[in-house]
Structure formats: C-alpha cells, structure tokens
Amino acid sequence: xxxxxxxxxxxxxxxxxxxxxxxxxxxxxxxxxxxxxxxxMAKCNPAFEWVQGDAMNAKDVLDAAAGAFALVHGVNPPGYxxxxxxxxxxIDNSIAAAKAHGALILMPGTIYNFGxxxxxxxxxxxxxxxxxxxxxxxxxxEQRLQAAAQxxxxxxxxxxxxxxxxxxxxxxxxxxxxxxxxxxxxVALPGKPGLGHAWAYLPDVAETFAQLLEKAQxxxxxxxxxxxxxxxxxxxxxxxxxxxxxxRTSIKTRRFPWWIVPVLAPFMxxxxxxxxxRYLWQEPLRLDNQHLVEVLGAEPHTPLDEAVLTTLxxxxxxx
Length: 319
What we know:
CATH class of the domain at 6-166 and 200-229 and 284-301: Alpha Beta
Order of helices and strands: EHEHEHEHEEHEEHEEHEEHEHHEHH
GO cellular component, one term: cytoplasm
Pfam families: Epimerase
Protein name: NAD-dependent epimerase/dehydratase family protein
Largest sheet: 7 strands, parallel
Helix content: 25-40%
Strand order of the largest sheet: 3-2-1-4-5-7-11
Domain NAD-dependent epimerase/dehydratase: 7-218
GO molecular function: aldehyde dehydrogenase (NAD+) activity
CATH architecture of the domain at 6-166 and 200-229 and 284-301: 3-Layer(aba) Sandwich
Strand content: 15-25%
C-alpha cells in the first residue's frame, strides 16, 4: 500500500498545476490528477494517478478528493473564455470537496484583483478595486475562500507576477515578448522603457507552494502570500536576459502593437484579454514578499539568466 500523502491536482496539464504536481511528487507526495480525458493523459504521464472527471461537476471533484491531504486548484477556463460561468462554480466545488475530506486548498492567486490605486507596491492586504470583470471574479473567489476558512477549510494562496517558464501555458513572455518556435530577432516591449514590472518563474512559484505546504500547520487558516519574483526595474532587464541567452550583448526591441488589440479583440478571446489587462503595463508594478520571507526565510529564486534560458529552450527559440 502506498502510504505517501495524497494530493489532488486539478489542472495538472496546465502551467501552474503541472509545475506544482511535478514539484510535489519529487517531494514524496502521491499525485492524483482530475481530467476529462484521464485514460489519454495516463498514457502520456503514467507517474500520476489520473481519474476521470470535470472540475465543473461537484460529485467528480468530491470523489476525486477522497483521502487527499491537499487539493491544488489550478484550473482556469480554457482560452480565457466563460469566466463568469465557470470560475466561481469550480472554486465552490473545490471548497465543498476540501471541507468534506478535511483537505487543504493550494490556490494560485493573480494580481487581477488589484487596480492602479494599489500600485506600485502590492501587499497581501492592499485594497482590491479591480478594473475588469475578471478581477471582480477573482475578488469574489478569494472572498469565498476566506468565508470557507471560517468554517475550517484551510487555504494557502500565493500571488505572483506574470508567469514565465517551461510549459507555462498562456503568458506574456511566450505570447508577447517572443514567438515560440521561431528564432528571436527582436523582443516586443508591452510597457514603456523605464517602467518596472513583476515576473514570476513558474518552477519558483511551485517550489514556494511546496515549502509553504510543509509549514501548513504553522499558518493561519486562510494564509496569503506575495512573491517578489523577478522585478524588471526598467522594463529592459528581461530583454537583456534574453539577449544573453542567445549569446549576444544586445537585441533589437520594438513596442508591442497595442493599436491592433482593440481591432482583433471582438474576434479573438486572447486579444480581448490583453486589452482588459493593459493597465498592468501602464504603471510600475511589484509585489512585496516580506511576509513570505518571514515564514520561509527566503523566497525560492532561480537566477534570471538561468530561468530565461530554460524558458527559451522549452519554447524552441534557441538551438
């Protein structure tokens, strides 16, 4: 009998869910993954225990969480679509399953919750006045987790900047700065030069969750943390790291073509998402990790050059 602690991962084929599943398995946990095509996924990754089910089906989530020590809620609507229909029902299903089985929820947070009034330095308790519908939904999601904490459902929530890294899924690095699968001749700048921005290397985010999980009994029932990640102070640090990965001293930059976003937004969900989140690139933005450092001693932090090179290799942008 496998006596390792069981963790249910919802979203194991996604960026943060997949990264967390790998890190937690390496730490000795047994991974159960909920998926709508479980048998197909089991052939691709037999190291996980794949179970058939849908995060929108309350019974599927409840059954999959049986015996689980923790539940990773790493699911998001595909293609940024139908947030209003899917996000809150899915977190309600996870909360109900966690409550029924006494499991702890690991919740990747976002900075969508915050509006410009909270910039430039985001703390865990900064005011949440989102500018977008998605931001308002995320505020509601966190409020539901906080309410569940009053009923004994434990949550560890970690917010971070824009994800990048191997198999990170939809993200600004892979869809804005460079083009996957193609040689890099230039890098697009979503923000103005001189404007600081927060980035988070996905394996570091996963390691942060893993270390916090080990300290779960020392944490409050609803525990929130911010990662500083990689703060690009002038908007050019990421560009310089990309150039170094390519063996160059510099690389051409160009402004991201924001003008085309409103034109394509009605027809392409991704561009609608980019349009809504443009405000995150119009002012300096960083996250305060003081609380995280107090708990862990140090934030997991892969050197930027190493993180960027690994990301570009995964995107097949370097030979």
